[in-house]
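Structure in, sequence out. Go:
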């Protein structure tokens, strides 16, 4: 096949091969094919867009994608799809303001392209321009009410009523489920569930959430047994003695702040509070810690922390720490004295992160188990978080997380982990923000108490909520729908009572501060 490709040099064939190689977890071989695609003398706009779609899967920094698309986007007669992918690349490169400008320019010549409006809405949402974002998403939905993704995203922050057009769009799309692909059917069901819940039809809404979850679970099953074996292995190797014996071998820096916990536990809000400080930067959810630790040798065995093939590089913890620090500094620059990495799943590697970066800060976001699981269950994560699509899976994932954190609490030095309780943060935001900032060695500033005014981009499912004034209505929501989530509550077992007892003890402690 290489010889045939060498003779014909057809970019389309190389793209197909690169996609297949990525599917077979051969990123280096796929990278070589993609390099040849970009070097082709006659690369069509369509093939260039496909190259851009595949390239971010193998590149942490999308600068090369930006350069290639930008050069084509400035050529006369360039397809609007190239400019769309150029804007997406700018957004991925933390150049969201430029991305919005490119999309607005694109709309001046192609105002009826729904996907441009959609992308503009997504970028503006991340930039905190919520009113303009929703207006752009509404325009996209009006132009293409049959598009599953547009329908779902545009409905996330829309409060449906029975007589508004968006409610009708969602219900009509559901009647045409057979016309959609398997992945699109999931998104249509989530859109319908959200619309029905907004108008108070809780039974039908949770029926749709369950149907969407069953369909997504077939596409992305949760490898529970693998995660259990990994935790058992870490428990047997990364002991208190192992930590004490190796803790001086990492990179001594106080710059990283790891904010972690179950998804939907308040990590975005916590990051925002810290990132408002003049000496801190919020880098968002990055895979850099897991990437830096991938292939680490423990007890004669290489540990896989990502889905990539295992590396045979015997890097020290200090070298891995330098790799991590270099990665976050590419995002944040060299100026901030603190950089926040709020990848929730970093809790799985906490003992190893401690060995890699012993001077870093650990901030554990905690939230009532039923509330945090319910919030995750109602959101579509695009195939990520495969445990979130089934109520019993969610409960078992929570218990696995709880067990993991119990391990790290036992083996890490006392006080190493700073707990932030969602309920306390919501009820006493000023007091909790003051406590948190002080724990991170930062001077107190009023800016940290105004997370809605941040100018930076937020790239998570909580992008909108993190910018809103802190609200209490999500607390205890599980009690209002408990009849629809009984499998979750049954599987959680004692976790709810344990959490509530711990919260009660904390609030009765002499040093606990209450709002006036």
């Amino acid at each position: 096949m290489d010889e045939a490709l060498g003779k014909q040099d057809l970019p389309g064939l190389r793209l197909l091969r690169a996609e297949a190689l990525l599917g077979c977890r051969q990123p280096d071989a796929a990278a070589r094919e993609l390099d040849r695609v970009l070097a082709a003398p006659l690369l069509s706009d369509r093939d260039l867009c496909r190259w851009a779609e595949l390239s971010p899967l193998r590149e942490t920094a999308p600068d090369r994608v930006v350069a290639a698309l930008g050069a084509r986007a400035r050529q006369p007669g360039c397809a609007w799809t190239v400019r769309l992918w150029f804007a997406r690349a700018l957004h991925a490169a933390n150049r969201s303001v430029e991305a919005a400008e490119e999309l607005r320019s694109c709309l001046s010549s192609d105002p009826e392209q729904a996907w441009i409006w959609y992308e503009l809405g997504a970028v503006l949402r991340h930039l905190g321009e919520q009113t303009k974002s929703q207006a752009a998403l509404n325009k996209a939905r009006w132009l293409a009410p049959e598009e599953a993704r547009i329908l779902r995203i545009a409905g996330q922050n829309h409060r449906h009523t029975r007589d508004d057009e968006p409610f009708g769009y969602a219900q009509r799309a559901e009647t045409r489920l057979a016309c959609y692909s398997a992945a699109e059917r999931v998104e249509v069901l989530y859109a319908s569930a959200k619309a029905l819940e907004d108008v108070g039809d809780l039974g039908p809404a949770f029926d749709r959430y369950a149907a969407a979850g069953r369909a997504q679970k077939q596409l992305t099953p949760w490898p529970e047994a693998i995660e259990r074996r990994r935790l058992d292995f870490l428990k047997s190797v990364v002991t208190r003695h192992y930590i004490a014996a190796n803790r001086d071998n990492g990179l001594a820096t106080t710059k990283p702040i790891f904010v972690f916990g179950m998804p939907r536990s308040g990590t975005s809000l916590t990051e925002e509070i810290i990132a408002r400080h003049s000496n801190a930067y919020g880098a968002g959810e990055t895979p850099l810690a897991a990437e830096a630790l991938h292939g680490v040798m423990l007890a004669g065995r290489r540990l896989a922390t990502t889905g990539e093939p295992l590396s045979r590089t015997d890097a020290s913890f200090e070298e891995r720490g330098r790799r991590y620090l270099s990665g976050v500094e590419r995002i944040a620059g060299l100026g901030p004295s603190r950089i926040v990495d709020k990848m929730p799943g970093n809790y799985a590697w906490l003992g190893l992160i401690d060995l890699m970066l012993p001077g870093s800060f650990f901030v554990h976001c905690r939230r009532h188990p039923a509330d945090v699981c319910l919030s995750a269950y109602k959101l579509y994560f695009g195939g990520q978080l495969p445990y979130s699509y089934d109520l019993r899976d969610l409960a078992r994932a929570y218990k696995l997380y709880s067990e993991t954190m119990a391990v790290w609490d036992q083996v890490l030095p006392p006080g190493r982990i700073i707990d932030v309780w969602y309920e306390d943060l919501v009820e006493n935001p000023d007091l909790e923000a003051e406590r948190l900032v002080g724990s991170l060695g930062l001077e107190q500033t009023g800016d940290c108490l105004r997370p809605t005014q941040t100018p930076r981009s937020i790239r998570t499912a909580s992008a909108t909520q993190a910018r809103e004034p802190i609200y209490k209505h999500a607390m205890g929501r599980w009690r209002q729908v408990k009849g629809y989530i009984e499998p979750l509550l049954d599987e959680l077992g004692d976790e709810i009572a344990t959490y509530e007892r711990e919260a009660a003890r904390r609030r009765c402690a002499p040093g606990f501060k209450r709002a006036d």
